[in-house]
Amino acid sequence: MKPNLNNVNLKMSAGTIKQFPADRLPQVAFAGRSNVGKSSLINSLLQRKSLARVSGEPGKTITINFYDIDKKLYLVDLPGYGYAKRTRSEQAAWSKLTDGYFTNNPNIDSLKLVCQLIDSRTGPTQDDINMIYYLRETNTPYVIVATKSDKLNSTEKKEFMSSMAEDDMTSDSPLIMYSSKTGDGKAELWNQIYAHCSL
Question: What is the pTM of this model?
Answer without folding.
Answer: 0.90
